[in-house]
Amino acid sequence: MSYLDISTRAPSEFDKGETRKKTKALIKELKELQNVLYASSKYGLLIVLQGMDASGKDGTIRNVFGPINPQGVKVKSFKKPTDREYAQDFLWRVHQHTPQHGVIQLFNRSHYEDILVPTVFKIFEQKFIDERYGLINSFESLLAHQNCVILKFYLHVSREEQAVRLSERVERPEKHWKHNPKDIEVAKKWDDFKKVYERIFEKCGPDFPWHIIPADNKWYRNYLIAKTVVEKLRSLNLSYPEMKAEDL
C-alpha cells in the first residue's frame, strides 16, 4: 500500500467551525508549552515541513506558529544551495540551523530536498543519492541523542488543489510575489516527486516517522499539526525550573 493512498481532504465527520475552535484552543496551549520549553531549556524541537509546491508550508507556519513568542521560534527556508553550500557536504547548511535547547525550529523544506531534487532531475548518479538516506538517518539520530525532538510533516495536497493554488498566484495581485514560472514545469513531475517521497517515507521513517497531513482543507491541516505538536510537547512532561535557595 502507498503511504499517500489516503484522502487529501478532511473526514466528513469534522465540522469546520468546531475544528477551528479546537485549533484555537490548541494554539493557546502550544503558546504555554513553548514558554515552558524555552524556560526549562532541556529539549529542542525540530519541525520539518515538506510537500509539493503550494501544499501550504508557509500557511502552516503563519497560522499555527505565528502566535507564538518569536524569541523561542525560528524559521529556516531551504532553497537551491549556494555555491558556498555546494562546496560543503549536503548536511552542512542544515546542521547550522538545528535548534538549541529551548527553541522550536521550523524547516520550510529541509535536508530531504537533497534527495528529492537530485533524484527527479537526475543531477547526480543514483548510487550517490542513495547514500544520503543512511546519512540523513544518522544525522537525525545524532540530533535526537542531543535531546532534539523531531517531528516530520508531509502536507498531502491533491493535484487538483495544487493547480487551483498555483493559478491563484497568477490571478490574485496579493499572491503575485509567490508566483514562479518554474512551478508549472515542476508540477508536471508530480508522479516523479511522489515516487521519491514514497521511498523517503519508507527508508527515513522508522525511528522518526512521518506524519501525512491531508492538506486540501487548510483548517483541518492546521488542526492536525497543532494537535500533533501539542501532544508531543505534553509527552515531554516539561516544567518550569524551580528557583534555587541561593537565588531567594
Describe the overall structure.
The chain is an alpha/beta fold. It has one domain: 3-Layer(aba) Sandwich (Rossmann fold). 49% of the residues lie in helices and 13% in strands. The longest helix has 25 residues, at 16-40. The radius of gyration is 19 Å and the shape is globular.
Mean pLDDT: 96
Distance between the termini: 60 Å
Helical content class: 40-55%
Q: pLDDT below 50 for ≥5 consecutive residues: which ranges? A: none
Question: Would you tell me the structural class of the helices and strands?
Answer: alpha/beta
Write down the CATH topology. Answer: Rossmann fold
Radius of gyration: 19 Å
Named at the architecture level, the CATH assignment is 3-Layer(aba) Sandwich
> How many independent structural domains?
1
Order of helices and strands: HEHEHHEHHEHHHEH
SS element count, helices: 10
Q: What would you call the shape?
A: globular
CATH class: Alpha Beta
Q: How would you classify the quaternary structure?
A: single chain
Task: Walk across the major sheet and give the strand order.
Answer: 2-3-1-4-5
* Assigned CATH superfamily: P-loop containing nucleotide triphosphate hydrolases
Strand content: 5-15%
Give the tally of β-strands. Answer: 5
Largest sheet: 5 strands, parallel
